[in-house]
């Protein structure tokens, strides 16, 4: 009897263990079947899949910050009137291209005519006193007048010359050139017309005047900009401010120009951080020979960060669903699991994995779309 028990107990134990293993396997199989993220691929589907091991690579992340196109302030002229007056003629329209020295407007100014009369009066007085001094010198040489009288005449001439120079300088301030002053001295005819002249080659981007308007020297009548170069201005988060330096080449994109990529030089990086936005202002000089880039356009500045060694996946392996990224991870020869991952900004056909995947795991690269369709079909079938 004891001998029978000795042989019977191991056999019963083996049966119990086998039964437990079968139940565990059945439980695992049921769990897999219940998990909608796991798909068992058929032999035909497997032929359409390409599986690769996940590896690491060096990735330089690019920071994209909002920016705007501004005029180059070093290529802008805000032009006003030199005197107070009333506009009688306007020769420049908004958007018109003008050349340096071109006439923009004409105004009538009583202030200008009054200053011209003062200059002509001072000029005449200077001429009379010059003649008086010449006569006084002859009379002094003939002992007709004393030295004191000659010195008095010379002193009066010096004062008249100073007054003439003051009137000359006043007309220069009021916008008259040396040629204008020479013509005034020859014709001895004052006029009240003052010209507003372009001081820069470029386009008229602002016109704030109408005919008959009274203007003053403090008023900006026209703004002319040379748009052959423009500025791209961006606000860099203070955490990335150390990555931008004056003189470096920078890249940008302009959505209005079909995200056209442009290059330029960083010409300014602010030394201070804005307290309200915690950003640093950076300016990039952009060549604009054809005038397609227009002030006011929105843009993005692309800032290259430091290189990092990260787990990388090809973008062809990524499945996008419900605004989330997934990849298919191989569990065994036939089974694959749809796993959510968090990816960084892609570049050159690859994206860095921030969360959800480790190096050395096997993922589906080509054919992930077909595998996901099969998973959806089986999920709908229940």
Set out the fold topology.
Blueprint: H1 2-34, E1 38-40, H2 43-46, E2 51-53, E3 55-71, E4 76-80, E5 85-90, E6 97-98, E7 103-108, H3 110-141, H4 147-173, H5 178-187, E8 193-197, E9 202-207, E10 214-215, E11 220-225, E12 229-237, E13 249-254, E14 260-269, E15 279-287, E16 298-314, E17 319-321, E18 324-330, E19 335-343, E20 350-355, E21 362-364, H6 368-381
Helix pairs in contact: 3-4
Protein architecture, described:
Strand 19 and strand 20 form a beta hairpin. With 382 residues, this protein is α+β, with helices and mostly antiparallel strands. The N terminus is likely disordered. It has a six-stranded antiparallel beta barrel with strand order 3-12-15-14-13-16. A four-stranded antiparallel β-sheet has the order 4-11-9-6, with no helix packed on it. Strands 8-7-5-10 form a four-stranded antiparallel β-sheet. It is built from six helices and 21 strands. The protein has three domains: 99 residues, Beta Barrel (conserved putative lor/sdh protein from methanococcus maripaludis s2 fold); 91 residues, Elongation Factor Tu (Ef-tu), domain 3 (Beta Barrel); 149 residues, RNA polymerase II/Efflux pump adaptor protein, barrel-sandwich hybrid domain (OB fold (Dihydrolipoamide Acetyltransferase, E2P), Beta Barrel). Helix 3 runs antiparallel to helix 4.
Strand order, largest beta sheet: 3-12-15-14-13-16
Q: Name the CATH architecture of the largest domain.
A: Beta Barrel
Number of domains: 3
Order of helices and strands: HEHEEEEEEHHHEEEEEEEEEEEEEEH
Average of pLDDT: 86
In the CATH hierarchy, the third-tier topology of the largest domain is known as OB fold (Dihydrolipoamide Acetyltransferase, E2P)
In CATH terms, the superfamily of the largest domain is RNA polymerase II/Efflux pump adaptor protein, barrel-sandwich hybrid domain
Fraction of residues in helix = 25-40%
Tell me what portion of residues adopts beta-strand conformation. 35-45%
Low-confidence stretches: 1-5, 24-32
Overall body shape: rod-shaped
Roughly how many Å apart are the termini? 55 Å
Q: What is the β-strand count? A: 21
- Alpha plus pi helix count: 6
Q: Structural class of the secondary structure composition?
A: alpha+beta
The largest β sheet comes out as:
6 strands, antiparallel, barrel
CATH level-1 class of the largest domain: Mainly Beta
Radius of gyration: 43 Å
